[in-house]
Model the fold of this input.
Amino acid sequence: MKIKINPSMVCADLSILGQQIKGLDAAGVDLFHWDIMDGVYVHNFCLTLAIMAACRQFTERPFDVHLCISDPASFITECAEAGGDIISLQLETTPHLHRSVEQIHKYGKQAGVVVNPSTPLAHLDTILSEVQMVTIMTVDVGFAGQNFIYPMLDKITLLRDIIDERGLEVDIQVDGQINAKTFKQVIHAGANVLVLGTSGLFSLSDDIGNAVQSVRDQILFAVSGSLT
Done:
C-alpha cells in the first residue's frame, strides 16, 4: 500500500505560496491539502477557495480540500470550480451527507468525509461505500500545534478493518501532529495518506526538496518497522 505525502498548505510560507507549491511539486509530493475555515464552525480562519484557485496554475497534482465550515455542502460548487479534486466534507456539519456526496460525484470529483476525534465510526456506516477517502482527525479540528490524540490509533485500525472486510477502495487520511513521532503508529494502524504540517514537513529544512526527501526516508523506516 503506497503511503501518500499530502502537505498542509496552511502551514506553508504564505508569503511565497506559489514558490512553495512549485518546490513541493518538483519534489514529488502526491497531493496538496487545503483547509478552508469560516470562523464559525471553528474559531479560526484559514485559506480561502480564491487563494486555492490562484494556486491551481502551479501544479497538476490533486488538490485535497477539507471544508471545515458550518455548511460545507453549500460550497461544493465553488470548491469544484476552484480546482478541488477531492472534496472532503466535515461530517458533523453535513446533515444530508448522501445527497452532498452525490453532488460532488456529479462534478466528476472524488468525495471524502472528515471525522472529529469524538465522533464514532458508526456514523460512517451507510456512506463508506460511496466515498473515496475518510480523514481521521488525530487532533481537535481547527488549530495547529495540538497534542496527538493516541486513542485515534484504535479508530484508524477499526476503520481499516471495516474497509478491508467490505472489499472497498477507500483511502484513510490522518491529519494532526503527523510527524516522525507518529508516522510508524498511524501507518501500522492502517493510514495511507499523511497530512503533513509544520512539525511533519515544513520545519525539517529550509530546502523544501530536502524536507520531502527526509519525510520519504522517515516513512520508509516506519513502513519497514511496521512490517517486522
